[in-house]
Every structure is written in structure tokens, then in C-alpha cells.
Amino acid sequence: MMDIKMEDQKTQTKTTQSLTMVQAINDALKTMLEQDETTILLGEDIGKNGGVFRATEGLQEQFGEDRVIDTPLSESGIVGTSIGLAVNGFKPVCEMQFMGFIYPAYDQIMTHASRLRMKTMGHYSVPMVIRAPYGAGIRAPEIHSDSMESIFTHMPGVKVVCPATPKDAKGLLIAAIEDPDPVIFMEPMRSYRAQREEVPTEKYQLPIGKGEKIKEGDDVTIITWGAMLSVAKQAAEQAESQGIGCDVLDLKTLYPLDRNLIAESVQKTGRAVIVHEAHQTGGLSQDILSVINDTSFLYLRAPIERVTGFDVPVPFFALEDHYLPTAKRVLSSIEKAVHF
Amino acid sequence: MEEQFPIIKVMDDEGKLVDPDVQIDSELVKKLYYHMTRIRLFDRKAISLQRQGRIGTYPPYEGQEAAQVGSVMALNGGDWVFPTYRDHGATLTFGADMVRTFLYWNGRAEGCVPPEGKNIFPAAVPIATQIPHAVGTAWAEKRKGTDHVALVYFGDGATSEGDFHEGLNFASVFQTPTVFFNQNNRYAISVPVEKQMHSKTIAQKGLAYDIPSVRVDGNDVLAVYEETQKAVKRARQGEGPTLIEAVTWRTGAHTTADDPTKYRPEAQGESVVHPLDRLERLMKNENLWDEAWINQVQLELENEVEVAVEAMENYPKANPEDLFDHVFETLPEQLDEQKQSYLDLIGRG
Ligand SMILES: Cc1ncc(C[n+]2csc(CCOP(=O)(O)OP(=O)(O)O)c2C)c(N)n1
Prior knowledge:
The complex is a heterodimer. By secondary structure, chain A is α/β, with parallel strands linked by helices. Chain A is built from 13 helices and 14 strands. In chain A, helix 4 (75-87) packs parallel to helix 5 and helix 10 crosses helix 11. By secondary structure, chain B is α/β, with parallel strands linked by helices. Chain B has 12 helices and 9 strands. Chain B has helices spanning 26-51, 65-72, 88-94, 98-105, 130-144, 162-174, 193-196, 221-236, 275-285, 291-313, 322-325, 333-345; strands spanning 7-8, 80-82, 119-120, 150-155, 178-184, 187-188, 191-192, 213-217, 242-247. The complex binds thiamine diphosphate.
């Protein structure tokens, strides 16, 4: 008897499990499918195949073809019909197979999802999530490596979220599904299996709009998100070995930005390096620069540095390592800021 | 609809002529055999290179050799070809360079550059997006008063995208000399065609646009060749577009990163006779099978593929400069600054 009871307690107290990011996303989707019958998943190859990255592995088996839906190959169709489903009582979670294939759906997101609430004065709303694996660095064929967050941060009426770790992925995805407005949920595919982390088994949310300081240091603030977080951390460690202390900020939400987090840190360090893998011109770094300008101009001790993808289409993979920001490039910008 | 669009065949699975009175052109048959063998060797080599990490992810076309060779052979030199990522068998047959085709799968833009005088578009990766391009290009030929045509390849999955329908409608409205060549290989990654559409055929989708359509046995190279020839001829004569549905079968995985056992029933496809085996049976039935010639072709082609692999691997390394130099004709100043500062950082400045 005693033994059995102890066993019971053990299983009850097992409150976390070690998961990769893609498993944590699967866990978040499963949690929502279990707890909210209006949640449905739509996408290409997400059913039997479990998605090309296996993010929906096992879910069709568990919840049926009616809730985990293999759609025709039609991004505009997926998002357009999801808008109708969302307006009419469901919470669709759409998967774009890769962010580079979201473009046919751009029209639907821009002309309808983003502004249906406004133009009906709140009568209709679109509580929908669009998941999109993004980014380069895995030797994928062309178009599979884009990271175009700024076409969505520039779009009024949608939120943009981008986790960097398994735990954040689960908490933010659940928050996105429960959010009353459309959310673009960017998943760094390079990080899908890069790291394991203890992830709570229960349902939990992390706040959309809040970033986090990942590392503390006094000399320079590094601001980044998603797959670039590990590059930034690597550069910060190298800088530390030269005696340069870095605050590393993971923004996690790209719209709306956590302006306080940025301002507090930059006001302390007086220097900032912004790192993103998207192209420089029109990239989110411009908006972050504006936040610093608006909140911390008089604290600055050096011009703000940006380390980004170049203003060129993401190249075929033979050149992708030259396209992507590297720790070396970030370190060089840290040094430039500090020795200004 | 299946009655309205019967699957057209010239030979059956045993390689017997459906109409025994038909005359076959032995030179043509040998040419078709040669090219199908050639592209099969390329395909198998590419899979093995990917397995060894010598190229990137690769989408095999094994099983679709008849559809690709039969269709592209119906074109002339001045015509245009619009391939997808799975149609390198067609482009190789049309005259694309084999070394560059390997380079493409090794992540090199050099692989998109066609030989001088060959009108071959880069493989389209975003599904269906090449279809309107083929219509526009054909439209340009018509406006220029030439008799060149454009042939565009696409899969069954592509028919769900808006670009497919928009392309067909434009071609219909402007009566462009376009051949829409669909390879219905029954799957779009994991999604079977029965879930892609409720319609029984792809050919019937032409009806809505008043575009003549046919369904052909895509594993019967002679039938594919003949039907494509008819479509090309009509287009050349100013009679507008045609939609061809070639019913075929993808023997292998969607790509080297895919596992079809997850979604394809084990026995499915077992009864499909490989298009090359079918052609071999026909050649034997028609006394065109010359063992010495076959062996010589095999050796010659194996050698061609080996030489191409070696050239691909010895190709000069990709230049970081190429990241910047071809984005515009003249590099804008700010992009040039990005280029210079990066080259300085990596010691190439
Ligand atoms: C716009 C777009 N969405 C999604 C993808 C991902 N994807 C690549 S191939 C493919 C299936 C294509 O099927 P089909 O058109 O039948 O051609 P096949 O691969 O069978 O030759 C998908 C969904 C893509 N390349 N482009």
C-alpha cells in the first residue's frame, strides 16, 4: 500500500518535462486542443504526417481529422477560411509550412485579419494564430529561410511573437491562442531541436508584450530575439572575456515591443547593439532605434549598432553563412560601441 | 468526369501497343529511352550524394521520367520551359547543363543560369507561382508574332493555389500559346490527391476556362509525347492553351527529408510498372532492343554523370561577393557599404 501511494505522489509531483522547442509547441497545441474544444488546427501536411517539422505529431490521431485538418495546398485559402472560422466561434491555429510561403496569405492578413475588428467597431474580431517556422541556417532550399517579421510588425492590428526557448514557446503559444486578436507566431526552425529545457506540464501563459533580460552586464545592451539569441549570447561571452559586460535582452514579442525593458537597460549601459537576421532596411531594428531615441537619447554614450542580415534576398544555402549575423560580427559591433 | 477524360495510352503495362496498327518511330523510341535512362541516373546519383552529405535536400522524380521526357521532347529549341523543383529531368533533357543542375542542389545560384540560347526558367519552389509566368512569357511570344510556346510543369497540389486558376484564366482570356503540363503523382507531400480536391480529375478544371484538356497515362512516354505534341502544335498555330493531366506516380519520397511510410499505405504503388520498364518491354516487343547499344548507352551515361559530379565538387567555392553583386544592375551606395564592411571583416576587403 505504502509503495503505491508513494508512486502516486511521484507522478503527481512530476510537474515539468524535458522538451525541445518543437516538442514544447506540440505540447502547447495538445494542451489547447484538450482544454478548449473551439481550438482547431489547419495546415498543409499537419495531420497524418504531423507537419514537416513534426510540430503536430500525433495530434490528428488523438483529436481526429475534424480538429487537426490537412488542408489543400493553399495559404490564402487556409488563412481566409480561418478568418471566417474565427469570426464564427472557433480559434484556428494555422500552420504555414515555412514563413517563406506565407506570402500568398499576405493579402488576407493585411486586408482582413488586421482590420476586421476596427472596421466593424469591435463587432467582429479574429482570434487566430498563424504559426510560421522562419530563418536560415539549416541548408534548406531557397525561399525556406526568410524571416520577414517586419512586414507584420508594420501591419496594424496583428501581434507578432517569436520565442527563443522551449519554455517560452509553450507559454507564448498558449497566450497567442487565447489572445482575442490575430497573432503571427514565428518559430525559429534552427532552434527547434537545438536545446532541451524543463517545461511545465500544466497549461500556462507568458505575457505577450514582455521581453526578458537573459544576461546581466553594465557596458552594452544587446537586443535580439528568436534564433539570434544564441548568437548574441555567444558574442556576449566573448566580450566578457575582454572585460566588457553585456545586458542581453530577448524581446520575445516583436509587436507590441517591451519598451520599458529596452529603456531601462540602455539607460544603464548607454550603448546598444541590435541583432536580427532579417534584412537591415525597414527591419525591426529601426523601430527599436526609435524606442531608444524616444526614451534614452540623453543616456547614450555611443551610436547604436545594428547587426542584421544584408539588404539582399536570403541567398541559396552555399552563401547563407555569409548572410546570417555571426558572433564575430556582433562582437565587432560591441567593440565599436564600447570603444567609440 | 472520368468518362469524359479517359486516360489516353499508346502502350499498355506489358509494352504492347494499344492499337497494333500504329506505326512507331524507332529513332524517336531510342531517343526517349536514352533520355529517360540519363535522367534516372542523374536522379539516383543525386539521392546518393545527398545521403553522403555532398549536396542539400533533394526531391527525387523517379517514376515520372516518362512524363518529363515525353513532354519536353515535344518542344523546339526556341520554346520556353518553366520547371518546378521536381522537374530537373525535363530541363536536363531540354538542354540544361548537368554540372549546374548538381550545383543547384548544392545551394548554388549558378544552378539557375541556363545555357546560352535555352529558355529555361529557374525551378519554382513556391508552389504554382511559375504558372502565371509561363502565361506571360507565352503572351509575349504571341505579341511578338513568333510561333514559340511556353510549357509549364506543376503538381497536383499546385492546382489548389490561386496562381493556378489565375494563370489558366489569363491564358484563356488572352489565348496565349501555353501548355499547362500537370504531373499528377497522386501526392502533395503527404496529402493524397483525393484530399486535395473533390473533383475526380485535374483535366476537368480546364472546362471552366474553356481550355481544351486531356488526361494521359503519364508513365507511357509515347502517349505523353503525342499528346504534348498536339498541344504544342495548337499553341504554335495560334489556337491557344491546353491543359494536360499526366497521371503518374512518385516512386520515392517527396524529398530526401521526407518519410513516405508515415502517410502512404505500404502496398500503394506496387502495381505501377516503372515507365522505363514499360518502354523496355515495348522495345523488346517491337524488336528495337539492341543489347550492345543499351550497354553502350548505359556506360556512356554513367560516365557523363560521374564527370558532372566531379566537376560540381571541383567547382570554385561560392564568392561572398555574389551575395551582393547581382541584386541590382548597379549596387546602391548603402548596399555597397554593407558589402565593403562585411568583406573587410572577413578579410577580403
Ligand atoms: C506556396 C508554397 N506552400 C508550401 C510549400 C511547401 N511544399 C513544397 S512541395 C509541397 C507539395 C507540392 O505538391 P505538388 O504540387 O503535388 O507537387 P509534387 O511535390 O508532388 O511534385 C509543399 C506543400 C511550397 N513550396 N510553396
